[in-house]
Specification:
Elements (H helix, E strand, L loop, with lengths): L1 H24 L8 E2 L5 E2 L1 H17 L4 E4 L11 E9 L1 H5 L6 E8 L2 E9 L4 E6 L5 E2 L2 E2 L12 E5 L9 H9 L3 E3 L4 H9 L5 E4 L8 H9 L3 E3 L15 E4 L4 H11 L4
Parallel strand pairs: 3-4, 10-11, 10-12
Antiparallel strand pairs: 1-2, 4-5, 5-6, 6-7, 7-8, 8-9, 12-14, 13-14
Helix pairs in contact: 1-2, 5-6
Length: about 260
């Protein structure tokens, strides 16, 4: 397994670098974009990176499935899946705002065993694999130790894909003196949690590619990641949102969510 893990690691890191190069090369104002059925934008760069990942997995690991935002390649009977968001943060990317990242995770029976997040603009490469600490450009990082208290920052991304209304959560956080950051990229938010800049990231979406890499990256840095009700979940299928936190603030955030939305 260690040898396989090493080959997966090399593969994922190389893909991240290649994707990052494409993101930087195609980053500009006045970018052409199309609109998908869910009213979210997609660019040619999203499609190119997505296809690059599909081709690379098919060539190197044909027995593995791929679940990616702009097109997937399921393999019947496969228990191992690559979960990819070619550009998490297409809205800011397509408007010339550099808060977007490449995200790739490897799951086995739904459990994330490897993850990489790459911010090509700041050259921040975060990597984690099961049983090992998360690194940023090769150096271990840790989450903050701050509680859910005044002056701390929480990232909140609410794409309204779940059946619950998350809008009251923002107001409850503000009343506690929490600073709220919305970036248009929940994976970018997860990166900030893992590196200790924010204490939590609340995400109300249901797409696994928005959370799979975040799961192992944040937990490898000492944090905690669950669905929005505090439960563990699979990351090779639709998810029930995601809370990624430093662990210290996790229970308090869960309480705010329970108070704010109708469960059931």
């Amino acid at each position: 397994m260690d040898h396989a893990q090493s080959s997966y690691s090399i593969f994922a890191l190389q893909l991240a670098k290649q994707a990052g190069q494409l993101i930087k090369e195609n980053f500009k104002l006045g970018m052409k974009k199309e609109w998908k059925q869910d009213n979210s934008p997609v660019t040619e760069t999203d499609h190119r990176i997505n296809q690059m990942v599909l081709d690379a997995v098919a060539e190197n690991f044909p027995e593995h499935s791929v679940n990616a935002e702009e097109g997937s390649a399921p393999v019947e009977g496969s228990t191992t899946s690559w979960i990819c968001d070619p550009i998490d943060g297409t809205i800011p990317f397509s408007h010339g705002v550099p808060t977007c990242v490449f995200s790739l995770a490897l799951t086995h029976h739904g459990e994330v065993i490897l993850g990489v997040i790459f911010d090509p603009f700041m050259d921040r490469l975060l990597y984690a694999e099961k049983g090992k600490p998360t690194t940023l450009n090769g150096k271990p990082i840790t989450v903050s130790s701050s509680p859910l208290a005044m002056h701390n920052t929480v990232v909140v991304e609410t794409p309204h894909q779940l059946k619950y209304d998350f809008s009251p959560i923002r107001e409850k956080l503000r009343k506690k003196g929490i600073k709220i950051l919305t970036l248009g990229s929940t994976v970018y938010g997860g990166m900030l949690v893992a590196s200790g800049e924010c204490i939590a990231n609340i995400f109300s979406g249901n797409k696994p590619h928005d959370a799979a890499a975040v799961k192992i990256i944040v937990e490898g840095a000492g944090g905690k990641v669950t669905d929005v009700f505090g439960k563990e979940q699979r990351y090779d299928q639709e998810i029930q949102g995601c809370i990624a936190s430093n662990g210290v603030a996790h229970q308090d955030i869960l309480e705010i969510i329970r108070e704010s939305i109708l469960v059931g």
